Amino acid sequence: MPTPHIRAARGEIAPIVVMPGDPRRAARIASDYLEDAVLVTDVRGILGFTGTWQGRRVTAMASGMGGPSMTIYATELAREYGVEQIVRVGTAGAMSAGVAVSDVIIATGAHTDSGMTASRIPGVHFSHLADFGLARAAVDAAATLGEDLETPVRVHAGAVFTSDHFYLERPALTAALTAHGTLAVEMEAAALYAVGAAEGVRTLAIVTVSDHLVTGESMTAEERETRFDTAVRIALSV
Ligand SMILES: O=P(O)(O)O[C@H]1O[C@H](CO)[C@@H](O)[C@H]1O
Ligand SMILES: O=c1cc[nH]c(=O)[nH]1
After folding, report:
1. Distance CA 38, CA 41 (A)
2. Which has more confidence, 196 or 152?
3. Which of 137, 149, 214, 219 is in Cβ range 3.0-4.6 Å of 238 for a Cys bridge?
């Protein structure tokens, strides 16, 4: 049944959703990876396509940017469409010196500064965790994929920082999070993991590093849209 934000009929969304932030990336995943992909929703320009990948029905749908947007779509997918698994395929800014532009991070957990977490269970510092089975499958898929690639992509597993801010400069915070093992910053993983915990949906975020907060290295806008092949392949494999 349509929701305020998704126009698809119930059966038009697959139980497995691959979810970039960017609607154009959802369209590209549908055209490059899915067979017989059909547009099933476009409310507010948030595109969703359902097709098949290796014989299994999969929906590629955007989340938009930030925790509130991700929370709306992930909650409606879980409650109204019976979605069982959501894997975010996003971009992130590296914080750690051990992570470079184009590397991929399997986000096993997500720290956050989001007010959404504080209001979800007041008084508790809620831990935002990926589904363990999905994270393990992603690590295994990355190893298998790496053997087939001419130019291997470096894949890391660890914590990211989910921030409400894209532009706020906080070098001390970046240094402290890095000193506590955080690999990169992005804007939706913690919200996705919170919905996963609340709604009983398996969730994982796999991000491609588009820029580096410390070195200043970065991808172009076009590269941000196109250079995420490894992350998508891992996401589809799990
Ligand atoms: O590339 P996506 O998936 O949108 O992810 C990152 O890019 C956006 C900011 O440019 C935020 O949504 C952030 O999380
Ligand atoms: O949220 C994001 C995404 C990419 N790069 C950043 O610095 N932040």
Report:
1. 9
2. 196
3. 137
